[in-house]
Amino acid sequence: METKRQIHSSLKVLLVSDIEKAKKFYADILGCEVTDWWAIRDGFSGLAIKLLQASDPKEVRPNPPAAGEKQGVDLYCYIEDWNSLDELYHEFKEKGAQIAIKPWVDENNGPWKEFAVKDLDGYCIAFGGTDGF
């Protein structure tokens, strides 16, 4: 018996220190459609975030690095090919995004290519994938 697909997508919820500045960043720098509830790019199965105003800036806590890593990651976006990945990197860089991890290739896994940006609160959003394999 075939199992019915029940979950279409998921999204990350981020507490931010200044909701209006966060909305502007996600719209202007990351190219998201921003509403009172969401920041999305390429639909809810693409980059999808719910931004919420923190009651205290101390509540904004990006992930620390994992064991053996230099940079924590709060959200990971899978990209289907390296041309799209490179286009995103250049778009974000041209718009002034803070690059947390410059593009690099892990030859042992895939090979896998990725980069990451940080938002205004220090949340790290990584983008990566194989080259259409």
CATH class: Alpha Beta
Whole-number total of structural domains: 1
How many helix segments?
2
CATH structural fold name: 2,3-Dihydroxybiphenyl 1,2-Dioxygenase, domain 1
CATH superfamily name?
Answer: 2,3-Dihydroxybiphenyl 1,2-Dioxygenase, domain 1
| Arrangement of strands in the largest sheet | 1-4-3-2
Identify the overall geometry: globular
- The number of strands is 8
In the predicted model, the low-confidence regions spanning at least 5 consecutive residues are none
Proportion of residues in helical segments? 10-25%
What's the order of the H and E elements? EHEEEEHEEE
Radius of gyration: 16 Å
Report how far apart the termini are.
30 Å
* Beta-strand content: 25-35%
Please give the CATH architecture: Roll
User: The biggest beta sheet, please?
Assistant: 4 strands, mixed
Domain VOC: 6-130
Pfam families: Glyoxalase (PF00903)
Protein name: VOC domain-containing protein
Organism: Mesobacillus selenatarsenatis (strain DSM 18680 / JCM 14380 / FERM P-15431 / SF-1)
